[in-house]
Task: inverse folding
């Protein structure tokens, strides 16, 4: 029995050591990145784009689907390795399996991690970071509410911890991705927003927690209620204060959007000047690790360098307007979170 406990203790120490070493290796300063979900790998490997990424020290958060573990990805890896750039793997499941990680798809995601790491090891590549995008499955809002369940929560936590363990076993950073509302759960010790939006992302210990602070979404969804871009940037600032308090330098924020994703976004940032106040607001709250979603929209403007410069050089600043609207929005979200917790 003593020998068994010693082995368990040693395994835990080694797991922590792997994580700490990876954090040291990944970056000595703030991580700046751009998400690349819809840009072909061959375009991401273009010499002009690679030179700009290197100039502004910007990394790529790369969407990797099962049919994209191919020679183009292998070549992109080689190009970036030679340039000293990092690729953060952002795996998505096949559409038939729900794309994102959640309570229902966790087992499939763990199996997919094995496929990815096997591919990387056979090609001689090191995956430094794995971005785990936690979002609800398909089926609509009614199904999301129906799937909320306190009884199954401990099993969900166990599955998510297995995901982190699997990533750490391969000496990679485990980066959780969530919606900003989960910060209310974290602060109160509840799980309503987490449970609604996929699983215990705020209840497990990631190396980084990246929040999808897509301020254009706030404007699109709440425009009729008076939500402006200024107010949305105040919302981002207010949430970022909480993220910094709760997760410290482990907190990261992704801003956007610059192009429609899988949804029906019609309100987007179409110039670096428009997204600069969002970057400034998040920096004002003390968040150091920042990203923009998505490379496709950036490239379509024809001025990627201007976007990269804004991401790197925009100084901290508060939005000039919108504080009251942001405060009211946060109050409504907190009230909704309490209601969700009662419904579980």
Result:
């Amino acid at each position: 029995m003593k020998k068994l406990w010693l082995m368990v203790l040693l395994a835990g120490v080694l797991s922590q050591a792997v994580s700490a070493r990876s954090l040291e290796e990944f970056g000595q300063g703030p991580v700046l990145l751009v998400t690349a979900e819809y840009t072909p790998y061959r375009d991401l490997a273009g010499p002009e784009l690679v030179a700009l990424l290197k100039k502004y020290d910007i990394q790529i958060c790369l969407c990797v689907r099962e049919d994209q573990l191919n020679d183009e990805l292998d070549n992109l890896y080689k190009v970036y390795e030679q340039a000293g750039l990092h690729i953060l793997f952002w795996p998505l499941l096949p559409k038939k399996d729900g794309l994102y990680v959640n309570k229902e798809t966790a087992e499939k995601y763990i199996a997919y991690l094995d496929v990815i790491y096997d591919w990387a090891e056979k090609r001689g590549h090191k995956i430094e970071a794995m971005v785990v995008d936690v979002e609800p499955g398909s089926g609509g809002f009614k199904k999301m509410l129906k799937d909320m369940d306190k009884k199954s929560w401990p099993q969900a936590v166990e599955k998510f911890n297995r995901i982190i363990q699997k990533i750490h076993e391969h000496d990679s950073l485990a980066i959780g991705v969530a919606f900003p509302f989960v910060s209310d759960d974290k602060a109160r010790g509840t799980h309503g927003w987490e449970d609604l939006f996929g699983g215990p992302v705020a209840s497990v210990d990631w190396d980084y927690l990246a929040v999808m602070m897509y301020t254009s979404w706030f404007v699109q969804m709440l425009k009729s209620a008076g939500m402006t871009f200024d107010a949305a940037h105040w919302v981002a600032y207010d949430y970022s204060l909480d993220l910094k308090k709760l997760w410290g330098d482990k907190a990261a924020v992704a801003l956007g959007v610059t192009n429609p994703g899988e949804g029906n976004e019609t309100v987007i940032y179409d110039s670096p000047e428009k997204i600069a106040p969002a970057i400034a607001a998040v920096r004002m709250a003390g968040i150091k690790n920042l990203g923009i979603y998505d490379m496709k929209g950036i490239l379509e403007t024809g001025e990627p360098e201007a976007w990269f410069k804004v991401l790197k050089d925009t100084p901290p600043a508060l939005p000039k307007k919108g504080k009251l609207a942001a405060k009211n929005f946060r109050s409504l979200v907190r009230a909704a979170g309490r209601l969700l917790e009662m419904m579980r």
